[in-house]
Protein 1
Amino acid sequence: MNVKRLKAVVSVTEMSKMIDLSRSRFYDLVERGVFVAPLYSLATRRPHFTAEMQEQNLAARETGIGVNGEYILFYQRRSDDEVRPIRSTPTKAHAGLLDGLRSLGMADLTQRQVDAAMRVVFPQGTGEADESEVLRNIFRHLRRQKAGA
């Protein structure tokens, strides 16, 4: 464990950053008993962690054994170099998108234009983006393109 001076108390946000997890994931693991639950200040009603609690949570993160004795695996975050773009075959993957754009009033649109817009707006692929988000971003891009033409 890094020899680092701990504060007397830290917030939930600071604690989750210290163990390199999102607040949401941290709270999930607190509910499961993997990490120590925060104390609440009587005066402010805000949750906080004492230095001793911080040490317990950091030890659980480092060893992979929760404070409740449960084994927990933590995935390493990928560096930007490790993230590979998601590629998809444009024509098949964007056929539904073309229909959606046409229903929004872009009747003269071609599959080639949609494919080109996808490469501009989502050069790394859409990943896990929701279909409606993809449709909205492509629609905005094509509308701006038409306005500038």
Note: The helical segments are 12-18, 23-32, 51-63, 90-93, 95-103, 111-121, 131-148.
Protein 2
Amino acid sequence: MAVRAFTDDPEKLLLALKEAIAEGVIETWQIDSDGDLTHTSAQWGRRAWMRPRVLDDRLLFNIIASKKEAMSKTVYAVYHGRLIQALLTHFDDKIKNVSASGKGTSGDNI
């Protein structure tokens, strides 16, 4: 499954997302040394990662499974849903639309 955030400037959107996380505006996500996002809550933290990739017309996020546990449908759905929620809450003015695929896609590591 992938999250696709369609935008006129995907690189600018990724930079704004990283800045919002670094400045504490977005408190429920953190970025690791690889540039991947993981949730910070006690329940969902570090159970998966979302890897951003800049494409011509979108910012694409593929999911990366934890090495400690198998990817469940619940973790899969929570990570996609919470990322979409953060994007819509903080960057609605930068996004044309956001979508998530129902099944794994190329680039996912589950």
Note: The chain is about 30% helix and 25% strand.
